[in-house]
Amino acid sequence: MSDKKVNATKQSLHSSEPDSLTELAWPQLLPNSVTNYDEYKFKLDMQTLRNEKGLALPLQMCMERFAVSQTGRLPFLRSSNLMDDVLTGRCNEFNFSDYLTRPAFEQQVRSPHIVMEEFLGLQL
């Protein structure tokens, strides 16, 4: 009898636990589909509107959404996509990010005077 232990992954036997390389090789498909759902739904709605109503209405909606995305804000204020949510109809929905956001991902609110001095290059 041999006292050697056989490693299942080295001897081409299937192990029950995947190694880290296998986990990296197979992408997580569900999180990608969840994050891209709103954009995919918007594009599908625009395509349906183009086929039914013509080009004017989808073009106007996309121009409004582009104008909203170009609206600036001061650097010390928290960012909010309220205008985009209103235009796309998501303002009445409650999703995961509304009530379960982790504090690690939240923006830090700093003093407006310090931020504007840094932004304008007026550091003393």
From TrEMBL:
Pfam families: UMP1. Residues 8-19 have a biased composition (Polar residues). Residues 1-20 are annotated as: Disordered. One of its GO terms (biological process) is proteasome assembly. The keyword Chaperone applies. GO terms for cellular component: cytoplasm; nucleus. The keyword Chaperone applies. It comes from the Eukaryota. InterPro entries: Ump1 (IPR008012). Keywords: Chaperone. Coiled coil: none annotated. Belongs to the POMP/UMP1 family. PANTHER family: PROTEASOME MATURATION PROTEIN, PROTEASOME MATURATION PROTEIN UMP1. This is Proteasome maturation protein-like. It comes from Drosophila hydei. The gene is LOC111599485.
